[in-house]
TrEMBL record:
UniProt-listed InterPro entries: ABC_MlaE_roteobac, Permease_MalE
Name listed for the protein in its UniProt record: Phospholipid/cholesterol/gamma-HCH transport system permease protein
Keywords, comma-separated and alphabetical: Membrane, Transmembrane, Transmembrane helix
NCBIfam families, A to Z: MlaE family lipid ABC transporter permease subunit
Pfam families xref list: MlaE (PF02405)
Family: Belongs to the MlaE permease family.
One term under GO cellular component: ATP-binding cassette (ABC) transporter complex
Regions that span the bilayer: 169-190, 269-292, 312-335, 347-374
Superkingdom of this protein's organism: Bacteria
Organism in which the protein naturally occurs: Geothermobacter hydrogeniphilus
GO molecular function, one term: phospholipid transporter activity
Amino acid sequence: MSQPPNYQLFDQQPLRLRLQGDWRFVDGIPAIEELFSRLEGLADGQCLKLEGETLGQWDSGLLTFLLKLLQWARDHSICVDCSDLPEGVCRLLHLAGAVPPQPGRRRRRRSDPILTRIGNVTLELHQTWQDALRFIGESVLCSGNLLRGRPRFRFKDLLELLEDCGAQALPIVTLISLLVGMILAFVGAVQLRMFGADIFVADLVGLGMAREMAPMMTAVIMAGRTGAAFAAQLGTMQVNEEIDALITMGIPPMDFLVAPRMLALMTMLPLLCIYSMFMGILGGGLVSAAMLDINLTPFFLRIQENVGLQHFVIGVVKAAVFGVIVALSGCLRGLQCGRSAQAVGQAATSAVVTGIVLVVVADAVITILCQVLGV
C-alpha cells in the first residue's frame, strides 16, 4: 500500500530535511513553496542535509522537487548534502546538473531590438564574405601549384574522386536529362502544332538543351549529390580533428583536400554536360516521334543544320564554371563545419543551397554576357 509523500524539517543544527513516503506523480507531490517559506529564515552559508532512509517508491516527481530545492538553495547560497539519498537519486541529480540548461538562441534573438538583429546579421554577412574571399584566394594559389606541376595530393585520391563525380553520377544524369528533354519537346509540341510548325520542336530542344538545360540541370544534380558529399566528408574530418592533424604535419588542407575535389569536378562536369545534352535531345526526339510523327533521323538532321556548334561550346564552358562553383561551395562549407554531428548536416545543407544559388547567378551572368557579345 502506497504512503503519501511528505517531508519533515528539523531546524536544529545541522538542519535536516527528511523525505518520507512514496514520491510519485500519481500520489501527488507536496508543494515546495511552503518549504521555501520555512527555509527563508536560514542565513547564507548554512547547510541543509537531505535524509532518504524512510523514502519509499519514487519517480521523476521526486527529482523535480529536489531540482527546484537545489536551485533555490544555490540562489540563497545554501549548501545541500545529498549523501543520504538513494544512490539512483544521487546519480540522476548529478546527471541533471552536468549539462546546465541553456537559454534558446531563438528566444533570445526575439527579445533583441530590431536594430541589434540587423547589426548581427550584417556582421555575420561581413564575416561570411571575408571567409569566402579568403577561401577563393587560397583556391587560386592552390590552382597555381597545379599549373606549375606541383600538386600536393595523392593521384589515387584524384582517380577515386573522378570515378565518384563521373561514372557513378551517370544513372541520375541520364534519368533527369532524358525527362527534361521530353518535357521540353512536349511543351513545344503542344504550342507549335497549333501553327503547323512541328519541325521547330527540334530547334527548341536542341538549343534549350545545349545552352541552358543540360549545364544547369547537371550542375544542380552535382550540387545536391557531390557538393553535399564534399561538405559531409570534410565536415566529418573536421569533427574527427583529421584536418587539425594535417595542419600539424605541415600538409595544407587546401592542397591535399580541396585541390583534387575541385580538379575532379572541373573535369567531369563538362563531360557529364555533353552526355546530358545527348540524352536530352534523345528524349525530345522520342516525344517528337510519338506525338508529331517526326522520326529520329530528320529530328537530329534538323538540329545539326540549325543549332550551331557555338551553342554546345557555350554549354560546356558554363558546365566548367559550374563545376568550380559546386566544388568550392562544398569544400568551403565542409571546412567551415563545426565539431558536432549536427554541424555536419548543416554544412551539407548549406553546401547544396549555396551551390545552387551561385550556379543560377553565374548562369544569368554568363547568359547576359553572351547576349552583349552577340555569341
